[in-house]
Amino acid sequence: MKKAVVIGATGTIGKAVNQQLTEKGYDVIATSRKSNPTLDIENKESIDKFFADKKDVDAVICVAGDASFGAFSNLTDEQINVGINSKLMGQINICRKALKALKPNGGIILTGGIFAHKPWPETTNIAMVNAALEGFVKALALELTEGRRILVVHPPFVKETAQAMGMDSSNCPPAIEVARAYVRGLDGKETGKAVYVDE
Ligand SMILES: NC(=O)c1ccc[n+]([C@@H]2O[C@H](COP(=O)([O-])OP(=O)(O)OC[C@H]3O[C@@H](n4cnc5c(N)ncnc54)[C@H](OP(=O)(O)O)[C@@H]3O)[C@@H](O)[C@H]2O)c1
């Protein structure tokens, strides 16, 4: 049975990824800060502890990480650091440990977001981090061995999130459709790439 770690597995997109992988027959280790086993991507000790007993993993998918909305001129140091410390460094630190647990031909998929390429006003912190993740996976793919692969998925606003934010959700895909892009990424051969769901 193939083994997958899903980080952020209780979230809007993570839940759908967990469901898709489980339906495909993966043994899923679902984690987040409040789950058992617990994992906080912003805390290196927590990452070390989580991965200490993990080996022969076929897939690690991270669908967790925060960044700040807000007009650039008003962003505080703390708000800018949210994106850097959580969504960017959190996922990079996951990769450092996940690679040691990853089987040959295994895959890591990180999560960015559509603002990497189609920003809205007040998304500088998010756009910066999402674009950085794309550069990171492109470069890291060149160093991976034995068929190991890495991708970043850039989800659009999903229907559930748009509805929760009171936005027009008519053009937004449901989380399950976005989750299918993660699974296709695992099944495919591509590496070092950004995966868009709305293209
Ligand atoms: N939803 C969208 O429309 C959308 C669009 C583009 C990009 N994205 C990106 O996709 C990712 C997931 O979004 P979402 O809407 O599914 O989020 P969500 O519903 O808020 O869920 C976040 C998930 O991540 C976990 N989590 C949060 N911080 C964590 C941390 N420091 N360490 C480990 N787990 C953590 C949460 O569980 P705990 O609270 O238990 O930790 C939860 O399982 C985010 O990076 C977001 O920027 C989302």
Give a short synopsis of this structure:
This is Short chain dehydrogenase. The protein is α/β, with parallel strands linked by helices.
Q: What is the rounded Rg?
A: 16 Å
Beta-strand content: 15-25%
Cα-to-Cα separation, first versus last residue = 32 Å
Query: How many discrete domains?
Result: 1
DSSP helix fraction: 40-55%
In CATH, the homologous superfamily goes by the name NAD(P)-binding Rossmann-like Domain
User: If you average the pLDDT, what whole number results?
Assistant: 97
Tell me the structural class: alpha/beta
Question: How many helices does DSSP assign?
Answer: 6
Small molecules bound in the structure, each named once: NADP nicotinamide-adenine-dinucleotide phosphate
What does this structure look like?
With 199 residues, the chain is an alpha/beta fold. The protein has one domain: 3-Layer(aba) Sandwich (Rossmann fold), CATH 3.40.50.720. The protein is 41% helix and 18% strand. Strands 2-1-3-4-5-6 form a six-stranded parallel sheet, sandwiched between helices. β4, α4 and β5 (149-154) form a beta-alpha-beta unit. α1 (12-23) crosses α6, α2 packs parallel to α3 (77-101) and α3 (77-101) runs parallel beside α4. It is globular and about 45 Å long. The mean pLDDT is 97. It binds NADP nicotinamide-adenine-dinucleotide phosphate (NAP). Residues 7-14, 32-35, 39-42, 63-65, 86-87, 90, 111, 113-114, 155, 157-158, 161 line the site of NADP nicotinamide-adenine-dinucleotide phosphate.
